[in-house]
């Protein structure tokens, strides 16, 4: 079972990551978000930042649908994210190894090629140990 501390540790281990000041967690590479806390919105109520749920950037709609359909206990979406390459991940439903893969993949899709080379040149910075 993973948690917000695991997200923070894994994200900050990646090259050129900046954490944005927020109520939860919010990580960027080259000014592009790749993983952040889920801002849950319920009509008529204030927004609630959920640190038990991570929003992850995914490559495209096909990948998004594959995750949603293949692992509905872990991944979900809301109408606010329709048409966007984003999924929500229930952190309690995923191990740290899998979370490391997901965070790294999200980072790779948002980082410029010149920065991806920094990750590829080094050792695995997001080892779950």
Explain how this protein is built:
With 129 residues, the chain is of the alpha+beta class. The chain has a single domain (4-113), classed as Aspartate Aminotransferase, domain 1 (Alpha-Beta Complex). It is built from 4 helices and 6 strands; from the N terminus they run H-E-E-E-E-H-E-E-H-H. It has a 6-stranded antiparallel beta sheet. Strand 1 (17-19) and strand 2 (26-29) form a beta hairpin.
Low-confidence stretches: none
CATH class: Alpha Beta
Class by helix and strand content?
alpha+beta
CA gyration radius, whole angstroms: 14 Å
Counting structural domains, the number is: 1
How is the main sheet built? 6 strands, antiparallel
- State which percent range the strand residues make up: 25-35%
Annotation field: number of helices:
4
Please render the helix and strand layout as text.
Elements: H1 4-12, E1 17-19, E2 26-29, E3 32-40, E4 48-57, H2 61-70, E5 75-76, E6 86-90, H3 96-110, H4 113-121
Antiparallel strand pairs: 1-2, 2-3, 3-4, 4-6, 5-6
Helix pairs in contact: 1-3
Search tags:
alpha+beta; 4 helices; Aspartate Aminotransferase, domain 1; 129 residues; 6-stranded antiparallel beta sheet
At a glance:
Helices cover 33% and strands 26% of the residues. With 129 residues, it is an alpha+beta fold. It comes from Micromonospora costi.
